[in-house]
Design a protein that fits this description.
Layout (H helix, E strand, L loop, with lengths): L1 E9 L4 H16 L8 E7 L10 E7 L2 H9 L1 H11 L3 E10 L1
Antiparallel strand pairs: 1-3, 1-4, 2-3
């Protein structure tokens, strides 16, 4: 099994905008389960504590590195990334590892 974890920092925006963007990213990415067959589990954390250095986190699980690669290229994932994630994020940190 492979874990794919991402922490994003959003661009400067109002607190209201930030909440809306985070909710959009969460619904978009979590909505891929059942659409992208490679996803075993996917969760987006948006209710972070004030001590956090990031704004939200993706925690996803795949059967293999090949499945992770397939997910990254899947048209539904690419659409969510291009429409809901990339336009609003300033920084991205990714960690992929076997479990």
């Amino acid at each position: 099994m492979v874990k794919h974890m991402i922490i994003w920092t959003l661009k400067e925006m109002s607190a209201e905008e930030k909440t809306k963007v985070k909710e959009g990213i969460k619904s978009g990415l979590e909505g891929l389960k059942g659409v992208v067959p490679q996803i075993k589990d996917i969760k987006v954390v948006i209710d972070n504590l004030p001590t956090s250095t990031g704004d939200l986190m993706l925690d996803s699980t795949f059967e293999s590195a090949e499945d992770l690669a397939g997910y990254s290229k899947h048209p539904a994932h690419v659409a969510v990334a291009n429409e809901k994630v990339r336009p609003y994020t300033a920084n991205r940190a990714c960690l992929d590892f076997e479990i």
